[in-house]
Amino acid sequence: MTESTINQFLVKSKSSVFSISDAIEGITHSLCTLEFEDHRPLYDWFLEELGVYRPQQIEFARLNLNYTVMSKRKLRQLVEEHHVSDWDDPRLPTLAGLRRRGFTPESIRSFWTEMGISKSESIISMGVLENAVRNDLNVRAPRTMAVLDPLKVVLTNFPAEKTEWLEAPVHPQNEEMGTRKVPVTREIWIERSDFMEQPPRKFFRLKPGGEVRLRNAFIVKCIEVIRNEAGEIIELHCEFDPESRSGLPGAARKVKGTIHWVSAEHGMQAEVRLCDRLFTVPNPLGDKSRDFLEFLNPHSLDLIDKAVVEASVAEGSSGDFYQFERTGYFCHDSVDSKPGRPVLNRIVTLRDSWARIEKELSQKQP
Fold first, then answer.
1. Which DSSP letter does residue 296 get?
2. Are residues 135 and 271 in the same domain?
3. What is the tens place of the pLDDT at every residue in 208-236?
4. pTM, full prediction
5. Which of 11, 16, 123, 184 is deepest in the core (most CB within 10 A)?
6. Total domain count, the chain
7. Mean pLDDT across the chain, nearest whole number?
């Protein structure tokens, strides 16, 4: 028997077995994919001949997402060959994987409401699913600050032993969520990418002699760059303008750049996992001449083990999610995150960075 004949036999066998099982269990509507449509007469005939309760079978097209695979056989291969950690790997399109990554039930329901049910086979952009969780978390996620690639900044005119507690909104568009206390000290961390010695013309972050505003705090000016023996930048010395504190009259002084930061004394170290598309091409099964594993994205899960987060994030637990300001939406990993040793998964970036890539790919196609 050929593989095609065997598959047809299995589908027919399933139709008869499923019909009896559905009738016994009192299933009202049996929802299945299009390959069972041709066998619906067998499903109905079997129940009519038995004279038992007959559920209604409804067929619909399988939903496919780009930059991943939905086939159980392919997913099993990814798991068993250890290309992913398990069925709940946050890069997989399984419900367990989506839950662990941080996709909320509300966002998945919203996605399905928008997509609806169809009998036409189609591949849906992953960006549609990601936008659903962005829209949900934008309304609900508390804001906080985290530095993923830390560069130390010393505020030379800030008292060495002092901690000043600043007031920051939990959600700038929802006053009902209240405020949080943010500590600022003489030494803070900023993102390494927020400083350039020789910046391009429209670089509005920190540079030698330049000024930026620290979010929810005050304006600082870079006065010195400190290097190690290898010539690498390890520290910046800056002066802060005490009259530019948020809430004071001097805060009206404008600078073009605002950056996030975390107190070096009060910030907590965390492991951050930057989850991204599992494959580098929209349809990894599209090229039949190549193994789909060739298209695995080597940066689908980048690990950062020395990120620094606000202390309140480190105290969180499974199910807690946040917007890291200027970075994206994150949640505690439900398996590996422990009290005092937080592990956070990136749910989604603030913007769809893959939209531009997909546009460029479509323009290259003949």
1. B
2. yes
3. 999 999 999 999 999 999 999 999 999 99
4. 0.85
5. 184
6. 3
7. 90
